[in-house]
Q: What sequence folds into this?
């Protein structure tokens, strides 16, 4: 059991992070804290994707394969699929990070609008002020 | 040129959206014709694409000539060709309509409004055209982010409504992304056609089940399926009238399109119907959505808010139609996507005209409207009758197929739900007609008033013409529903 947990620890961390984010989005009354929870939630997904790229048996990044920089060696070792980790999840996450930054920007801009109007970031107080 | 049409549908609004601030920098007033021109070009490309699909069958467009499954592929079949025309056409009408309303509601944000507006349309078009699940995620987020921004600049309380939408919408998108991750882990592919080939061997896998569950919940959040609809009424009520006329019809329908695509193209219908009891769950959720949406709509005094709950009920129609899961009901669902977009945009353009004239959108603002704005109200009556489901209008036919499909499958509760919702719609709209025919001022009731002279003050032409055209389309789609069914929709129905 313990081994099961330890051997896949990054996936457990991804679940824990996701739940922390979820909790913050649901339970926190402060809008900025909600946004932080949202960001943790998204970051957990990045961790999940990056974890799936991992390969056992000493695979590494293509750029690290030939430290002496002889073009020939690098090209040769890059052909062996087992030598480097799957790059595609990384590429997808680059796109997803851009999306997440944009979401964060929009959310913060909206929070600024709310703060200018009501002078508070507490959801209960805002709802009270709206009535 | 002709073979580039599928990609131009998306690229034109995207590029023009990025150029739009420049155009606005030259002169603020140029933004409106710029947006109209862009969307007209995009609509032309969409119509060319639809025409090609009808005559030559499915189009595969490889972006940058990278062959799938490595490159991104645009696949246009009958279903998304119809969606493309529908989205670009609706966006064009709303753009024509937007001028006065935007000038009145957002005088100092015109440039940014049209920029975000075009980005929003790009997002919708991209979602329906792409054949790659990750690409779909990116476009889904473009559409959602533009939607958050458009909603946030609305009336009092809009920023908070938009904030709630941001949080819930992001959770939905993240679930969708997770579903893609799980699919990628077991198949190693992101291309829809490739996934459809690789998945059937893996249907027993738990990872696939988790992916499917994440996917359904995520997309249900985006489409405002009943228990997850709480963001919708506030957001669309408080958005600027033009923004809600664009978002309210399209966002939910695009999400339903994504659900159809994943359930019946990426996964095989047998998986969604037999291996998992998903359709049974969807059927019941749809029924609950119809009942709750209809009942909540009855309780509203705000016109736009009432329309929002009608949307919740309409989403229930379509999800329930998928849940019935026979060819007739799914045909009804796809036809209802088309009809519902046209009808909802009609209702929200009328709401926008009322807001433009009266500065509010409560039910009482309809007072004496039949005398003040006879043309607008004539269009409104047609749209309302179509939502109720009166025969020659388009709303009747999709409802007919849904009911027929449900009866064939023996799901009588769904039939009852559809009829119940129609009855509630009769009450909802005739209540408004009654207010509209109240010509006497309130002073009259106290016995010392005189007949108030109501003068005709029709909406400006730029708002009136699109509204009238939508009413015309409702009649035309109703009359020509058979050609649409035979040429387009019957190919879009998955083989069950």
A:
């Amino acid at each position: 059991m313990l081994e099961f947990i330890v051997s896949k620890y990054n996936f457990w961390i991804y679940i824990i992070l996701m739940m922390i984010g979820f909790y913050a989005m649901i339970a926190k009354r402060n809008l900025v804290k909600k946004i932080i929870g949202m960001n943790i939630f998204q970051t957990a997904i990045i961790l999940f994707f990056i974890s799936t790229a991992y390969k056992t048996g000493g695979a590494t990044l293509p750029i690290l394969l030939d430290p002496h920089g002889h073009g020939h060696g690098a090209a040769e070792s890059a052909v062996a699929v087992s030598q480097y980790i799957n790059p595609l999840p990384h590429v997808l996450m680059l796109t997803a990070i851009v999306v997440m930054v944009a979401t964060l920007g929009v959310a913060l801009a909206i929070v600024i609008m709310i703060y200018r109007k009501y002078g508070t970031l507490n959801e209960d107080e805002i709802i009270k002020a709206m009535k | 040129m002709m073979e580039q049409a599928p990609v131009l549908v998306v690229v034109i609004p995207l590029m023009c959206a990025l150029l739009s601030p420049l155009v606005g920098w030259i002169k603020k007033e140029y933004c409106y014709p710029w947006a109209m021109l862009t969307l007209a070009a995009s609509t032309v490309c969409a119509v060319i694409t639809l025409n090609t699909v009808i005559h030559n069958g499915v189009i595969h467009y490889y972006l940058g000539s990278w062959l799938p499954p490595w490159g991104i592929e645009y696949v246009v079949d009958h279903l998304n060709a119809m969606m493309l025309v529908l989205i670009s056409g609706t966006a064009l009408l709303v753009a024509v309509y937007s001028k006065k309303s935007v000038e009145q509601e957002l005088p100092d944000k015109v440039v940014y409004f049209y920029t975000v507006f075009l980005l929003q349309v790009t997002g919708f078009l991209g979602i329906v055209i792409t054949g790659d699940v990750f690409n779909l995620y990116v476009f889904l987020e473009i559409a959602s982010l533009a939607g958050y921004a458009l909603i946030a600049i609305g009336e009092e309380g809009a920023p908070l409504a938009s904030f709630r939408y941001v949080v819930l919408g992001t959770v939905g998108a993240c679930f969708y992304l997770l579903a893609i991750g799980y699919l990628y882990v077991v198949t190693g592919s992101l291309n829809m056609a490739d996934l459809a080939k690789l998945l059937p061997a893996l249907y027993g896998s738990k990872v696939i089940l988790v992916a499917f569950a994440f996917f359904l919940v995520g997309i249900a959040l985006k489409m405002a399926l009943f228990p997850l609809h709480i963001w919708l009424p506030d957001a669309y009520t408080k958005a600027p009238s033009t923004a809600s006329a664009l978002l309210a019809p399209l966002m939910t329908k695009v999400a339903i399109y994504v659900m159809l695509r994943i359930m019946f193209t990426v996964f095989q219908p047998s998986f969604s119907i037999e291996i998992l009891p998903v359709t049974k769950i969807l059927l019941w959720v749809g029924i609950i959505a119809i009942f709750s949406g209809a009942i909540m709509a009855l309780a509203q005094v705000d016109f736009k808010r009432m329309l929002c709950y009608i949307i919740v009920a309409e989403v229930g129609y379509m999800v329930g139609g998928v849940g019935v899961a026979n060819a007739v009901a799914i045909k009804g669902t796809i036809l209802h996507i088309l009809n519902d977009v046209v009808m909802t945009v009609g209702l929200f353009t009328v709401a926008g005209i009322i807001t433009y004239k009266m500065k509010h959108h409560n039910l009482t603002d309809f007072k004496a409207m039949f005398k003040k704005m006879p043309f607008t109200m004539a269009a409104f009556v047609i749209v309302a009758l179509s939502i109720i489901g009166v025969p020659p209008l388009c709303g009747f036919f999709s409802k007919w197929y849904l009911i027929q499909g449900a009866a064939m499958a023996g799901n009588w509760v769904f039939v009852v739900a559809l009829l119940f919702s129609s009855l509630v719609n009769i009450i909802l709209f005739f209540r408004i007609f009654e207010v509209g025919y109240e010509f006497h001022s309130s002073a009259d009731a106290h016995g010392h008033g005189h007949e108030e002279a109501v003068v005709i003050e029709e909406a400006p032409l730029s708002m009136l013409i699109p509204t009238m055209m939508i009413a015309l389309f409702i009649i035309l789609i109703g009359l020509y529903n058979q050609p649409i069914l035979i040429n387009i929709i019957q190919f879009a129905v998955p083989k069950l």
